[in-house]
Amino acid sequence: MKDQTDKLVLAKINDDINKVLMDYKAVGTSFFDPVASKAVEQFLSGFNDVKYYKYGGHEHAERTVFVIYPFYMDKPDCPFIKALRILWNPKYHRIDHRDILGSLIGSGIKREKIGDIIVESGMAHVFISSELAPYVENNLLRIGKAAVSVQAVSCEEAVVSNPKTKIIRTTVASPRLDSIISACFGLSRTKALPLITNGKVRVNWDLVQKPDFLVSPGDMLSVRDMGRGKVSEFHGTTKKDRLLVVLEKYI
User: Fold this and answer.
1) In 45-153, which ranges are continuous DSSP H helix?
2) 230, 168, 219, 226: which is closest to 198 by C-alpha?
């Protein structure tokens, strides 16, 4: 997050904490992307009189809300998110993530009230702040030229497939970030270097601009405009002392 945005977000979280302590009940925040979520989590960890957990409506959620509650309370459910099932005829119309997000924002809904949007052929599930679900259900009739139907469902009813990935088994000279980015995204190291130094690469959602940064198994990688990947495993070295790696490229 940028400094000014960071301050505004954390001020709102501080207000939420005060509300929890005054009302003795759980509060749900807006949705945060992984970068903002790390800052919020670090901030919340400094308070001993509240507990919290993250939830985005499904197991692999990228955008999540924080449920904040008094430290003495058992972990509550999350009534702050609803899933919307959107249907259309895929024979005549193709709708993607951008189309749905644009229609929702165009109707006056703020981005922070919208979670993940999972699109399949003829159907999408949108995770959204609960208080806005009835409005969207009753008023979203078209997305672009396509007529759509919208039904609010529980998060458990939403059909969310596991993310699709391509497994890449290869060797690299070392676990340096430039080597791993090259292997995961099919680039030469010459092309990978400026992506890193120009601030287009994140590791575990943190901006990393050092090509010699050493990655580890489990690290998440993202390259702006190119997608995401994951370092799955290291498998020792070859006879030529190259590192055997298993990577996952999200497709």
Assistant:
1) 97-106, 133-139
2) 226
How far is residue 163's CA from residue 51's CA, in Å, rounded to a whole number?
A: 30
- DSSP class of 224: T
Task: Examine the pLDDT at 121 and tell me if it is beyond 90.
Answer: no
Bridge partners for 165 per DSSP: 250
- pLDDT tops 90 at residue 164: no
Amino acid type, 188: S
Cα–Cα dist 183/116, whole Å: 28
Nearest to 196 by CA among 218, 221, 217, 216: 221
Residue 160 has what pLDDT? Answer: 76
Q: Which domains does the chain have, with CATH numbers?
A: 3-70 (3.30.1370.160), 81-157 (3.30.70.330), 165-250 (3.10.290.10)
Helical (H) or strand (E) element with 38: helix 34-44
| pLDDT score of 161 | 75
Burial class from Cβ neighbours inside 10 Å (0-12, 13-18, 19+) for residue 236 reads exposed
